[in-house]
Amino acid sequence: MTASLFDTASILPPEPRGDDGEPLEVLHDREYRVQAYRKRDDLLLIRGAVRDQKPPGLYIDIDPDPLTIHHMQLDIEVAFPSLEIVGASVAFETHPNETCPNIVDHYEKLVGLSIARGFTHKVRELFGGPRGCTHTTALLQAMAPVAMQSIWSMRASQAGRGVGEASSSPPTDEQRRAMWQMNLNTCHVWAEDGEQVAHLEAGGEFEPPVFARERLVQLGMKPEDWRSRMRS
Fold it and tell me: Is 129 part of a structural domain of the chain?
């Protein structure tokens, strides 16, 4: 995958400064990176990594380079559209203790779990505390939402390539309802007793996403054209 596919600029705000106007001393950098791939039309690959670094010279005074203290990688294969995990593998690139990699095979217990139903609770149960690696488990919890986001992306991919149900006809009301119901109680917007859900339950249409409206304007189009331009 080429870097040009995505914006690689920092997602953090500008560096903070102290009362004297000077930049604050940086003590630690943690980076998560997660990408989703269409491996087949019925299979997603979710690939993630977490890396912790210390700035040059903080731990070893003569060291001119950043020092990586953790670097874990995790691949999970997710069946589509059932969202059952059918494959999982973990790799430790950098770790503090010789025995850290002993837990790698334990993450094979992910196979058979649903990424959509009670996943966070099950992850804590299987891999929390001494039952796993703190950093790998945190990465895993960051990867699950990416799998959910990729449901829409898979449909868009199929529509763009003219395959699957997404290309043959618009989704029925029942199919649309099933799609948004997966968002129930995932955040305050999707609270089951909130305005958004009440609007949809009453037969209302999805409101155009803010990002879609803004991008259409940038492209010289009208915000209300979003339905005809977005694949789903």
Answer: yes
Q: Is 193 inside any structural domain? A: no
Any domain includes 221: no
| CA dihedral of residues 19, 21, 23, 25 (deg, nearest 10) | -30
| CA geometry: angle 78, 80, 81, nearest 5 deg | 130
- Tell me how far apart the alpha carbons of residues 195 and 116 are, in angstroms, rounded to a whole number: 23
Per the structure, the complete domain to which residue 67 belongs is given by 11-168
- pTM for the whole thing? 0.84
54 domain residue, yes or no? yes
Give how many domains the chain has, as a whole number: 1
Beta bridge partners of residue 74, listed in sequence order:
48, 90
CB of 149 closer than 8 Å to CB of 226? no
Side-chain half-sphere CA neighbours of 192 within 13 A: 4
The pLDDT tens digits of the residues spanning 175-218 come to: 667 667 777 877 898 888 989 888 888 888 777 778 877 888 88
Determine the Cα angle at 174 with ends 195 and 154, to 5°.
90
